[in-house]
């Protein structure tokens, strides 16, 4: 069965693991070729291990297992020339660009009085500037002839709320929401739609690590995933629907919809996928 995705090409950053890999593989299942980018190392201000070259190689393996082509490169979204080089190379090999998902991002936590300049800067440079670099590097390849395209940025529940100890993260994710609304107006006449998904906690390395779990469960010396998933845990209590977190598939489901022809008139939307975190 053919679909509205057949033969299209998607550029996805942060594609080595977690949400980015899932977006790549599930788009590949639907007939999409992939341009993938990730940094493949850990960062000093981030309290969990970063992706590796082996992780990105696994993404390549899984996309190719779906019978699709993939151009995967190591690179840092903070460097605009690097991002341009990767997307230019990918389009030259794969022939076009239709979908852009600036997924690369980090999480770190610090109270405003204690946040180092390095922690602030790395967050803004990756979660905001890196996302912007991904969009601007892609725009020359998204056709302006009215044939259209789809950009889905990654917001957060922090795009809506003032979550404590996350001033830098909140700032970046609020800004993503503003970019989405502006680009939706600018690019709408070209039928390029621009939206965002805004997840709550997602079951990835960014959330399921001892440092982050300790913030939710400070009374436990060494909190585990089992503690977070237990009935009545702080993770569950944070959501209206009593689950500790959503799965990567839940985020990808929203992205697939927003990129599909079924959402052809949806633009400028920041869609929460959060088990009711915001409304609670």
Structural description of this entry:
The chain is α/β, with parallel strands linked by helices and 280 residues long. It has 9 helices and 7 strands; from the N terminus they run E-H-E-H-E-H-E-H-E-H-E-H-H-H-H-E. Helices cover 40% and strands 13% of the residues. The mean pLDDT is 94. It has a 7-stranded parallel sheet, sandwiched between helices.
Question: Secondary structure elements and their pairing?
Answer:
Elements: E1 9-13, H1 18-29, E2 33-38, H2 53-65, E3 70-74, H3 80-94, E4 99-101, H4 117-138, E5 149-154, H5 167-187, E6 192-199, H6 210-216, H7 225-229, H8 234-237, H9 248-259, E7 270-273
Helix pairs in contact: 1-2, 1-9, 3-4, 4-5
Quick overview of this protein structure:
The protein is 40% helix and 13% strand. With 280 residues, it is an alpha/beta fold.
Question: Number of helical runs?
Answer: 9
Q: Give unreliable regions as ranges.
A: none
| Rg over C-alpha atoms, rounded to the nearest angstrom | 18 Å
The assembly state of the depicted protein chains is single chain
Strand order of the largest sheet: 3-2-1-4-5-6-7
Shape verdict: globular
Query: How many strand elements?
Result: 7
List keywords for this structure.
alpha/beta, globular
């Amino acid at each position: 069965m053919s679909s509205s995705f057949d033969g299209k090409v998607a550029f996805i950053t942060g594609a080595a693991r977690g949400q980015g890999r899932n977006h790549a593989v599930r788009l590949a299942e639907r007939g999409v070729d992939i341009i993938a980018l990730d940094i493949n190392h850990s960062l000093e201000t981030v309290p969990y291990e970063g992706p590796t070259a082996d992780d990105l190689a696994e993404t390549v393996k899984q996309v190719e297992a779906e019978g699709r082509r993939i151009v995967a490169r190591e690179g840092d979204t903070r460097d605009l020339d690097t991002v341009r080089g990767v997307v230019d190379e990918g389009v030259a090999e794969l022939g076009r660009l239709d979908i852009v998902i600036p997924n690369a991002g980090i999480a770190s936590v610090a109270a405003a009085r204690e946040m180092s300049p390095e922690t602030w800067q790395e967050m803004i440079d990756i979660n905001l500037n890196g996302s912007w670099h991904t969009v601007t590097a892609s725009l020359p390849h998204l056709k302006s002839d009215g044939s259209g395209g789809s950009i889905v940025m990654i917001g957060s529940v922090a795009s809506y709320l003032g979550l404590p100890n996350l001033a830098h993260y909140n700032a970046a994710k609020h800004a993503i929401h503003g970019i989405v609304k502006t680009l939706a107006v600018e690019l709408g006449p070209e039928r390029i739609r621009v939206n965002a998904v805004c997840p709550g906690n997602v079951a990835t390395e960014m959330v399921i690590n001892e440092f982050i779990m300790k913030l939710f469960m400070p009374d436990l010396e060494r909190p585990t995933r089992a503690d977070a998933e237990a009935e009545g845990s702080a993770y569950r209590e944070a959501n209206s629907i009593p689950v500790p977190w959503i799965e990567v598939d839940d985020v990808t489901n929203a992205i697939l919809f927003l990129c599909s022809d079924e959402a052809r008139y949806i633009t400028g939307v920041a869609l929460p996928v959060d088990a009711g975190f915001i409304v609670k």
